[in-house]
Amino acid sequence: MMLQADRFKWMVCLTVLVGAIMSALDTSIINVALPYMRGNLGASVEEITWVASGYILSSVIIMPVIAFLSARFGRRPFYLFSVFLFTASSMLCGLAWDLPSLITFRVIQGIGGGVLLPISQAILRETFSEKEQGLAMGIYGMAVVIGPAIGPALGGWLTDNFSWPWIFYINVPIGIINFWMATKYIQEPAYLVRETGKVDWLGLILMTISFVTMQIVFENGQDKGWFDSSQIVCCTVIAVVSMALFIWRELTVEKPVVDLSLFTDRNFICGTLVGAVFGLCLYSTLFLQPLFLQQLGYSANQTGMILMPRSLIMALAMPLAGRLYNSWGARNIILLGLGITVCSYWQFAHLALNVSGSDLIMPQLLQGMGFGMMFVALSTVVLSTVDKPKMTSAVGLFNVTRQIMGSVGIAIAASLLSNGDTLYRSILVAHVTSYNPMSRHWIAGVAKVFQHHGMNAMSSQKAAVISLSNEIDRQAQMLSFNHIFILMAVIFILSIPLMMTIKNQRTKSEAVALE
User: Fold this and answer.
1) What letter does residue 349 receive in the DSSP assignment?
2) What is the pLDDT along the chain (515 residues), one digit of tens a residue?
3) Cα-trace Rg, the chain
4) What's the half-sphere exposure (Cβ side, CA atoms, 13 Å) at 221?
5) φ and ψ at 431, to 5 degrees?
6) Do residues 357 and 302 touch, judged by C-beta distance below 8 A?
7) How far apart are alpha carbons 241 and 249 in whole angstroms?
8) Residue 337 three-state SS
9) Cα–Cα 20 to 30 A to 435, which of 236, 483, 493, 502?
10) Residue 46 in contact with residue 223, Cβ under 8 Å?
């Protein structure tokens, strides 16, 4: 009987992991194909980015209301519908005839994908025993990491060997298999009470307006000069006001669409805030490192290969952290992961332009190990004191907070990188003048090289000055990268007091025994 129960548990686990990987994969698989889509559909750079942003935006909007929709329609039917929606919209994305149709189908796909990740996490929490919660979140973390890690490589292979629609078609057979598995192994939880009555449409509309305008600010703020643009100012005001009204509405309405009472739970609110810091630093790092490597001259394919060790070590670190969770406790694992991550940022902050690919292996491994340990411990402890009837709602809120702060992190990183380039270039230029003997010596040496290749004296002198200007640009950007990585380390260090407020265990008796 125990063997049957264990087999059923692992089949449930496999079922939701297939859905989770499929959803996570589609956040990154299209990135390498965007230039091909742009050429095929005749879109501008700004327009084609909405193919990626539309998916993320609809995912973020649906996550907080997953619990409400599960209670309204039943979690098992809702999960099955989401798999169907994701699979059908994937087929339609591949068949899209123009850019508006592709963006529309990607938004629909994001709604289905945004449901699969949080519900998978909630089902894993309920399927595994109390002692196996760390292991369950380690397995879930692997799915979240593996999808984005293999996405660019798989998307590039499919695009090069077939065509860009195949990055969507590949979801169809997987989605059909996942739908069949879900009908066989996913059960309706016994505690779920089906909700009836009026829907809080006003709360839902206010939340949607806030998230949409917030995403527009994060997506376009850097290009439009942030608050120098009236559009960004207007969207920011709308986002803030609608969010404030949404919070007020959810705290006063009888049946809110999002259960904000979860934030009265100390573990949940502290873990969610630490998760927000984690999301901010993780997503900004994922944004910065490819830019950093390509500035050094690496191709897109080489960049993907150099960044692969971090993803692989994260996938290995997560089950290990899950195994250690019960004996070490959440705080110790989070602090250890934080310390390892800070060390990796410190190493990244001291890199120079002459860095080689092999020099990046150790900081990548450290970062993967640190991120992996922190993710598992946070995902486990943040839900450890949440009652089962509120589990789906808690998972949705935790994930959407991390996702939104990830968008904030990318926006901040892009702004700091641009402003840092300007600042450090002005500082460097102030020291590179005709009165500086080192500058004169450098220009003279480079001019001789150009003359050796056939240039006349005047042209070689001009080319040498241009080369010096380009070198100053590269050094300024390197300094900008260095100081952003230091800032990320400082942010993590400043979050230590918040981490210390997190309780290690679910029950009071276990907490007393541990402390």
Assistant:
1) T
2) 333 345 577 888 888 888 888 888 887 777 667 777 878 888 776 677 778 778 878 888 888 888 778 877 888 888 999 999 999 999 999 998 888 899 899 999 989 988 888 888 888 877 877 777 777 777 777 777 777 667 767 777 788 788 888 989 999 999 999 999 999 888 877 666 666 657 778 888 888 888 888 878 877 777 777 778 888 899 899 999 998 998 898 888 877 878 788 888 888 888 888 888 888 888 788 778 777 776 777 766 676 677 777 878 887 888 888 888 878 877 888 889 889 999 999 988 888 877 776 778 888 889 888 988 888 888 888 877 787 777 778 887 888 888 788 778 877 887 788 788 788 888 877 777 666 677 666 677 767 777 776 777 777 777 777 777 777 778 888 888 888 889 989 998 888 888 777 776 544 434 333 33
3) 25
4) 24
5) -100, -10
6) yes
7) 12
8) helix
9) 483
10) yes
The two tokens of residue 306 are 């150099």
Nearest Cα to Cα of residue 502 among 487, 489, 515, 493: 515
Please state, in angstroms and rounded to a whole number, the distance separating the CA atoms of residues 26 and 17. Answer: 14
Other CB atoms closer than 10 Å to residue 94's CB: what's the count? 19
* Distances, alpha carbon 333 to alpha carbons 99, 320, 391, in Å: 45, 11, 23
Q: Name the pTM for this structure.
A: 0.76
Residue 61, C-beta contacts closer than 8 angstroms, at least 6 positions apart: 111, 114, 207, 208, 211, 212
Euclidean distance between CA atoms 459 and 208, whole angstroms: 59
Q: Under DSSP, is residue 432 helix (H, G, I), strand (E, B) or coil?
A: coil
Q: How many CB atoms lie within 10 A of CB 22?
A: 25
Q: How far apart are CA 142 and CA 18, in angstroms?
A: 11
Q: Please count the other Cβ atoms lying within 10 Å of the Cβ belonging to residue 425.
A: 18
Q: How many CA atoms lie within 13 A of 205 on its CB side?
A: 4
Place of tokens 């994930």: 399
Q: By C-alpha distance, which of 48, 115, 39, 130 is closest to 84?
A: 115
What value, to the nearest 5°, has the Cα angle with vertex 407 and ends 404 and 413? 140
* Cβ-contact 97, 367 below 8 angstroms: no
Size of the chain, expressed as the number of residues it contains: 515
What span, in angstroms and rounded, lies between the C-alpha atoms of 16 and 81?
A: 14
Residue type, 329: G
